[in-house]
Amino acid sequence: MADGRRPAAEGTPGGRPEPGAQRARVLALLEPELAADGFDLLDVRIFQGGGRFQVRIYVDLIAEEPAAADDDAADADAPLTGISLDEVARASRTAGMLLEEADLFADRYVIEVSSPGIRRPLRTADHFRRAVGQRVDLKLRGRIRLRGVLQGVGADALDLTVPGGGGGAAPTAASSETPTGSPTGTPTGTPTGTPTGTPTTTRVAFGQILEANLDPDFDVQAIINADRRERKETKRQERAAKKTGRKKSRPRDKRKTDAGPAEG
Length: 264
Description:
The chain is an alpha+beta fold. About 30% of the residues lie in helices and about 25% in strands. The protein is built from five helices and eight strands; from the N terminus they run αββαβαβββαββα. The chain has helices spanning about 20-35, 85-100, 125-130, 170-175, 220-250, and strands at about 40-50, 50-60, 110-115, 135-140, 145-155, 155-160, 200-205, 210-215. A hairpin with a 3-residue loop joins β5 (about 145-155) and β6. α1 (about 20-35) packs across α2. The longest helix has 30 residues, at about 220-250.
C-alpha cells in the first residue's frame, strides 16, 4: 500500500464538524477532480487521534464499461485493471493539493492514499453492483454489523443473505428505510419464521450504511498462523541439519597408539 502525506497543517481547535459531515465534504471535493484524472474514489475514512486527523483515501482506476455487443457475456463485476504505485502517488498529490487549498480541517491532519486491497471499500451503487455474488461486510447506523453474500442492488437498497445464527443481523434496524420495489433479481423482504441456522435475506437501505467492504471468504489469521508454523518448522529443520553437519565434520580425538621403541 502506498502512502501519500503532506506536512501537518496547523489550525485552531473547536467548531469541529461531525465525522460524517466532514467525510461528505472531502468526498465532494475530491471525487470530481480525481474522476477527471481517471481515478475512482472508492471511499474516504477519517480517524482522529494523537491531536490530529488521519484522512485515509482509497482509489482505483475507473473501470472500463463492457462493450454493448457483449451484453450476454458481460459481467457487472468484471475485473479491474488494477492501480500502480505511480498512479497512487499521482492521486495522492492531487488529493493533498485539493485538501490544502480547501482548508477543510481546523486541526492538524495527514492524508494516506491507498489502493483498495483485498477488503475493497464499497460506497456507490456501481461499487455494490460489481460485488454482487461476493461476501461483504457492512457497518450500519446503531452499531449494527452485517456480513453475508450480496444478492442484488436496487436504486436505494441492497439485499444481503446472512448466514443463520450469526453475522450481526438486525433486519428491523437495517430495513427501517426499505424503499418500494425490490433490487433486481432478489427476493422481496426477509423471510419470517425461518428456522435457526438457515440463511436469511435482509434488505438494507443505502442510508443505513456507514462503511462497506468486500469480505473475502477466507480466514486471514489462519493463513498468518499457518505461515508462522511453516517458518518455524523450516528453521527447526535448518538447525537440525546444522547440528548433524557439525557432528560429521568434528575430528576424532585420536590417541597415539605408537608407544615408540621399546627400551631394553
